[in-house]
Amino acid sequence: MTSATERLRAALGFGDPFAEPPLESLPEDLQGWAGRDPVLRRAVEIVRPRLVVEVGTWKGQSAVFMAEICRELGLDAAILCIDTWLGSLEHLVDDRFRPLLGVRRGRPTLYEQFLSNVRARGLEGYLTPLPQTSGTAARFLQCRGIVADLVYLDASHEEPDVLADLEAYWPLLRPGGLLVGDDCTANFPGVVRALTIFARRHALEPRVEGVKFVLRKPDVPTVRVRATEATATLP
Fold first, then answer.
1. Closest Cα partner for 49 from 151, 182, 181, 167?
2. What is the total count of domains within the chain?
3. Residue pair 45/69 in contact by the 8 Å Cβ criterion
4. N or C terminus of the chain: which is more exposed, having fewer CB within 10 Å?
5. What is the pLDDT of residues 207-234, one digit of tens each?
């Protein structure tokens, strides 16, 4: 019997990213932001996913955390990590964040760092990278007929990008599944505005817990109701 990860990799058509020796092995570095949040643990425990799609992976802190929970629970689960591994706007323009890119030979080494982190934790059987933009990756998954049980959005903080990711990945979430998003705070108003627009548009009631927001996809279509203003629940 094939595993969930083997089935995912067969559907993607790229093979096993860990089958060959790494081009560059780096010491473990799981630096990140709120990647081990209890909200993620509860989401995995509630959904008990066969497939998690993470949009915005960075060095893999949250992906590794969810994979370790899946292993702890004995779940046959696959986690698909979508990222360009090139950093986002704030990493390019803010001198505080630029060193985190680990630039060598003129490009970030975030992808190599992610692969090294996964190997260090022995999680090659759970995690599969898809180096691509979020928009193109969503269209690719739709073409492949891939549907997730849990989606975690933690990519761009710009309002148009966040709204586009919400609209792109909501159809890829099965009914009853959960979409969790990061950075829903006053520090990232673009995330808050995008969530508010999306929730109103789809008649959803987002739940905000700390820096994370959670949306549950209805099992059946629902009548339109007034969505809670996300800003009302911010600390």
1. 151
2. 1
3. yes
4. N
5. 999 999 999 999 865 444 333 333 333 3
Q: Would 166 be classed as within a structural domain?
A: yes
For residue 127, count CB atoms less than 10 angstroms from its CB and return exposed for 0-12, middle for 13-18, buried for 19 or more: buried
Coil, strand or helix: which one is 218?
Answer: coil
Quote the CA–CA distance of 168 and 149 in Å, as a whole number. 15
201 Cβ partners below 8 Å, 6+ apart? none
Position 84 confidence tier, pLDDT thresholds 50, 70, 90: very high
| Residue 167 resides in a domain | yes
CA-to-CA distance for 28 and 138, rounded, in angstroms?
Answer: 29
Distance CA(212)–CA(184), nearest Å, equals 6
Q: Does residue 128 lie in a domain region? A: yes
Would residue 24 count as lying in a domain? Answer: no
* 191: containing domain: 38-233
CATH number of 193's domain: 3.40.50.150
Count of beta carbons in the 10 Å neighbourhood of residue 219: 10
